[in-house]
Amino acid sequence: MWSVQNPLEIWVKNDFVLSGCRPVPLLMHRTPPDTDPELEFWNLLREKLQGVVKFHWFKDLEDAGNLVVTPNDIKDYILGRTHWETVRKFNQQVLASNRTLISFIGGWEYKPKSGEIAFAGSTYRCEAEQSVAKPSWLYDIGHKISQLQKPSKPTVGFVGHTRYPGKVNSVLRHFPIPNNTVGWMAGSLLVNRNLTMSMRRVIAARVRRKVIEEARRAKSLETSITERTGDYFILPKEEKERQRKEYIQTIQNNAYILVMRGDTNGCFQLWEVMSAGRIPIIIDTNQQFPDLGDLKWEEFSVIVPYSQVHQIGDRVQQFHDNLSDEGFRQACQKSRAAFEYLLPHNFILPTLRQELLRRQATR
C-alpha cells in the first residue's frame, strides 16, 4: 500500500490520452506549468506529485500494475464522443482483472463499477451514490477580490444562466411543472442519470428562475442579479472577457453569492465564490459535498434546501444578524480557508490514500 515514503505507482493507457484536454489531476506533473494567475494553483499539485506519484505508460493490459488511471475526465470522452466505447469496454476489462480503476468523472452522474474509485463533481446524498465527492476546480479568483466589510443589509449577487439554448428548452419552458416535482428531479441521482443534457438544462432553468424570483421578492435582501442565456465557453473572446469582468465585479460588490445547480448537481461557481472569500448561499438540491475536516460548511455558507427556497430571505437575514462585524470577517476567511483545504494539492492524494486504505481494510 502506498505511503509518503513509497511512491504511488499508477498505470496509464497511452492511446487514451485526449489532445487539447487537461489530464486528470494525478497526471498534472506531466504537463507544462500554468502561467495564468487564475490557474497557478495547479502548479502546487504538480510540485507535490513529483516523486510521490510515479506513472507508467502501457499499451496492453497485461503490462499494467494494480492501479490503472483513466487519463482524462469521463465527461470529456462522453461529450466529445472520442474513444468512449473503447474506454468503457477497456475499463471493464481492468476491473475484471481485479485491478483498481481510478477515474475522474467531471460534472456527470456516473455509476462507478465495483472496484472503481471515481471522483465526481456532481454527487448526491443517497445510498446509490458511490462516487467520491470532489470540488469542481476551475479558477482561483482570490487575488482579484478585496475584503468587504459587513453591510448593514445582506447584499446578494448572482451572474449566470437562467435560460439555455436548444429546441427542447425552448418548448418545455412553457410547460408548467410543479415546484415539488422540480425539486425531486433536481435532487435525484437516478433521475439525472437517465436525463439527456437538454432535459437537465430544463431542470436547471426551473431551479434557477425559482431561486432568483424568491431572492428578488425577499424585502430583507439587496440583490444584484444578472440573468444570461447561452453558453459562456463558446462566446467570442471580447464578449467572454466582458461577461467575465461583470461576473468578477458582482462577486466583489456583494457579501453573499447565490450558488445553485446547473446542468448537473454541482456548480463550479461555488468554488470560485469560496476562493474569493465571499459567503455562498447554497441552494441544496441533495448534493453531497467534500468533507472539510475541522471546518464546517455551516460556518461560512447559508444552506437553503430547495424545498424551503421561499424562506431564502429569512435564512440569509438570520445568518447575517448572527454575525458581528468580526464574525462576518471570520466567516469570509473560513470560506477562503475551506477553498484552500480542498485545493488539488491538498485534496487528491490524501483522499485517494484514505479510500485505498478503506478498501484494503474491507477485503
Structure overview:
With 363 residues, the chain is of the alpha/beta class. The protein folds into two domains: 8-136 and 343-362, no CATH class; 142-341, 3-Layer(aba) Sandwich (Rossmann fold). 39% of the residues lie in helices and 17% in strands. The protein has helices spanning 41-49, 74-80, 84-96, 167-172, 179-186, 189-193, 197-217, 237-253, 268-275, 312-321, 325-341, 344-362; strands spanning 8-13, 53-58, 67-69, 100-106, 116-120, 132-133, 155-163, 222-229, 256-259, 279-284, 302-305. α5 (179-186) crosses α7 and α9 (268-275) crosses α11. The protein is globular. The protein starts with 7 loop residues before the first strand and ends with a helix.
Oligomer: single chain
Overall shape: globular
What share of the residues does DSSP label as strand, in percent?
Answer: 15-25%
Spatial sequence of strands, sheet with the most strands:
8-7-9-10-11
Q: Determine the number of helices (DSSP H or I, runs of at least 4 residues).
A: 12
β-strand number: 11
Poorly predicted parts: 1-5
The helix/strand series, from N terminus to C terminus, equals EHEEHHEEEEHHHHEHEHEEHHH
Mean pLDDT, rounded to whole units? 92
Q: At CATH's second level, what is the architecture of the largest domain?
A: 3-Layer(aba) Sandwich
Main sheet characteristics = 5 strands, parallel
Key features of this structure:
single chain, 363 residues, alpha/beta, Rossmann fold, 2 domains, four-stranded parallel β-sheet, 12 helices, 11 strands, 39% helix, 17% strand, globular, disordered N terminus
